[in-house]
Amino acid sequence: MANKATTTSKPKIWLIYGITLPIFVLLGFWLVNAGHKMDDPAFAKSVSVVSQPVSFIQDLWGHIGQPSALLLLQLISILFFARLFGFLFSRIGQPTVIGEILAGIVLGPSLLGHFLPEIYRNLFPPASLSNIYYLSQVGLVLFMFVIGMELNVGTLKNKFKETFLISQWGILVPFLSGMLLAYFLYDLYAFKETPYLSFALFIGISMSITAFPVLARIIQEKDLTRTHLGTIALGSAAIDDVSGWCILAGVIAIAKTGSMGNAVFTLLYTCVYFLFMLFLVRPFFKRLGEHYQTSEVVNKSMVAFIFLVLLLSAFVTESLGIHALFGAFMAGVVMPPKSNFRRIIVDKVEDVSVSLLLPLFFVFTGLRTQIGLLNTPTLWLTCGLIIFVAVAGKMGGTSLAARLMGENTRDSLSIGVLMNTRGLMELIVLNIGYEIGVLPPTLFAMLVIMALFTTFMTTPSLNLIERLIPVRNKTNELLSRQQLGIFKALVAVGNPANGKVLLNVAKTVLDGSKNSLAVTVLHVTEGTDVNLFSGDQYIEDSFKGVRVEAESLEIPIQTEYKVTDNVSQEIVFTTNEDQYDFLLVGGGVMTAAQQRRSKHSLLRRFPLIRMIFDKIDQQHVFYPSSLIKDKTRYFIENSSCSVGVFVNRNFVAIKKTLIVLKREEDIFLLRYGRRLLRNNLAVSLRIKDLDEMTTENTLFSKGIMRLMKEFPNRVQWCVSSLDDKEYMRSFSFMLVSYTSWDDMVEDKGINLDHIPSTLIINKKRSRFHDLGRLAGKDE
């Protein structure tokens, strides 16, 4: 009754509103006219003169020129170009940081200021740059806090001997080579008032730094996190980062105080502060973290307290004369070691700092970088020399140290390439040197180019090493697999929770009597901004149910979690690179009628648009799910093994199964049918011969008769039509080849609205077995 009263009262509400609104409008109009009589005549005359269209345009530009509006316009420009260039570079396999740095150079005096100086001056007037600078500093403080939290102290303990030696050689060799280079550059490029010691130390530290976040990201993208190479590189980079920041603190102290004696006191106070943070603040937060491990209890008050500690730490180090970034880094290091707590805080901080504020730092660096200053061949040769010394010192030092520690040539060179990645951390060092007056604009531009080059070369260099020095002999590995009878299947899932269903399908469909099934469950996340420690923890939490299911099915499995910008490409690459025998991907299906109904529910008020969608829907039936979307054909055409696309239609278990035969090559489906019957006693088969292939093909007839003889009362012919709605609903599973599926989709006489859960298989001649050879016994 209450609902009915509410429904009937709606017209009355609108009637009352329709009556009262004109009354209020008329009353307001009368008040305005009455009030005009009290206006000063001179003021009324000025208003009538000013209120012109031209004046409105002038006022509009005047409003845009206001500091707040100009800052918003700058933010819009910066974020747009940073995202655009970051996306473009991610498509070619490069870290997005390179694109964001180049976006700053494009918006800076080097390009925009050179070709469109009027737009550049209006968009970035000198008086407004301080706003971008201060916001970028806030972004850096938050980012360094995140880096401190993502620093895995456990990584520093594992293989400490090897990683410590590699990291220290990666500091000392390039540092000394940088100081040697500074000896020749000092007279030509340094400010006259800059002491040689400060200049040489900054050149040395700029050659020594490693971008730990970028390196960790590359290792994660190349799936090296849990490998020996990844462990050594991450540990070395972490120690290198800590050592580099400690040395940088000393270099800043010397540069600001002007003497070694005064710098000693600054460093002494800094050490006292660091010890206070490590031995007093850190234990306090460790206890605090035991009570705050969920997003429900990490409330606004707790987050505010953490920000307070962060800002206090940054303020103290800034007051000591080193830099606020060191305090932010230490605040992150002393946070509770609980991974849940750190992930919650990082999720709250990282999106704002990385997506909004950090691009401001890149653009501000670009605004400072005047590539036009390098206007002679000599200056470009000097820039090339700086790049050569940076690469030779960092790569040479770390590669040689790795080789001395017993690493093979391939891993030694790979470690050298990874440690040579500079990226964002290098830009932070360079901007500090620029701000305190140690690095002049010309040398600053050269060093920015060096940072870009050394970061850009990382991924191509790793790929080149992989091609020139293969990690293993894949042919021997394949022969070994064949001898051991191992059938490798890759199960790619969009959601690890759905992996249990695909494991059941893999066990029943792929497990043979003469081979051992080994499954790898792969989950690929699309994106570029993933926490450095999220991968391992995500696998630990999300794949727990998959592992339990694998144990119950007695399937040996491995789990892989990857982050990439192209999910389909990464799945195919993994399939071909590791030479899997079968790729199983999960999908969903929606028939044309269902798709039209879905769109009609949204577009029923737009007849013209609905008619257009109707025309499109008549041509398509198969609509894969979000994991594969329209990439099904990409998987099939580019994978070097057989591919199965599982369409989940309320799947429960494989019991009554329909095998659809339409072409001669569909004979391989009978082999899968035999596996179903043998692996599960509850399975029964119905074979549907759409084009009467069995009457024309002897091999078909022999294969089916062999199945009927081997499994009596469990294999029968299907005499009903696929359009029989009730009959199709009696099946729990269906097998069909990809080519026949295409034929069924194109055949308007076949209604696929009521198909059961289906495995669509594209057969390729397996490296392991010939799946099309039905006449013999099962493998």
Short structural description:
It contains 35 helices and ten strands. It has 779 residues and is of the alpha/beta class.
The N- to C-terminal Cα distance equals 69 Å
How many runs of DSSP E, i.e. beta strands?
10
Q: What's the gyration radius in Å?
A: 33 Å
Point out poorly predicted stretches: 1-8, 589-606, 612-630, 767-779
Task: Could you tell me the CATH topology label of the largest domain.
Answer: Na+/H+ antiporter like fold
Write down the domain tally.
5
Residue share in helix: 55-70%
Q: Identify the overall geometry.
A: globular
CATH-defined architecture of the largest domain? Up-down Bundle
β-sheet strand percentage: 5-15%
The CATH class assignment of the largest domain is Mainly Alpha
Give the structural class.
Answer: alpha/beta
The DSSP helix count reads: 35
The major β-sheet equals: 10 strands, mixed
Strand order of the largest sheet: 3-2-1-4-5-10-9-6-7-8
Q: Tell me, rounded to a whole number, the average pLDDT.
A: 78
Explain this structure to me?
It is a single chain. The protein is an alpha/beta fold and 779 residues long. It has five domains: 2-64, no CATH class; 68-98; 99-467, Na+/H+ antiporter like fold, CATH 1.20.1530; 595-620, no CATH class; 649-757, Rossmann fold. It has 35 helices and ten strands. It has a ten-stranded mixed sheet with strand order 3-2-1-4-5-10-9-6-7-8, with helices on both faces. Helix 24 (499-510) links the parallel strand 1 (486-493) and strand 2 (516-526). Helix 4 crosses helix 17, helix 5 runs parallel beside helix 17 (339-368) and helix 8 (129-150) packs parallel to helix 16. The chain starts with a helix and ends in a 17-residue tail after the last strand. The model is unreliable at 1-8, 589-606, 612-630 and 767-779 (pLDDT under 50).
